[in-house]
Amino acid sequence: MTAPRTKLFVGHLPDGCTNDDVLSLFSKYGTVQECEVKKKYGLVQMDTPKEAEDAIQALNNYKFRGSSLCVEVSIVILFLSLGEL
User: Fold this and answer.
1) DSSP string over 40-82
2) Domain holding 47: CATH number?
3) How many angstroms separate the CA atoms of 48 and 15, rounded?
4) Is residue 27 part of a domain?
5) pTM, whole model, 2 decimals?
6) How many structural domains does the chain have?
7) How confident is the model over 34-73, as pLDDT tens digits?
């Protein structure tokens, strides 16, 4: 199971955004274990909670190709992880 607070939701991605685009943004803040882009949003798995928090702090509301990104801990993963406690 994914560790809580390392899987991030990335919303408001601009049209045409690719996995490589998102990977290049997030890799500045640590090791990206997984990156998956779906149309206007993506999911990014960072290696540690600190790396995830650093990425959130730097990239939430970051202007990228005319869009203001929304970066936060993925709620679904967090709820699933908390349910196992």
Assistant:
1) TEEEEEESSHHHHHHHHHHHTT-EETTEE-EEEE-HHHHHHHH
2) 3.30.70.330
3) 29
4) yes
5) 0.84
6) 1
7) 999 998 999 999 999 999 999 999 999 999 999 999 999 9
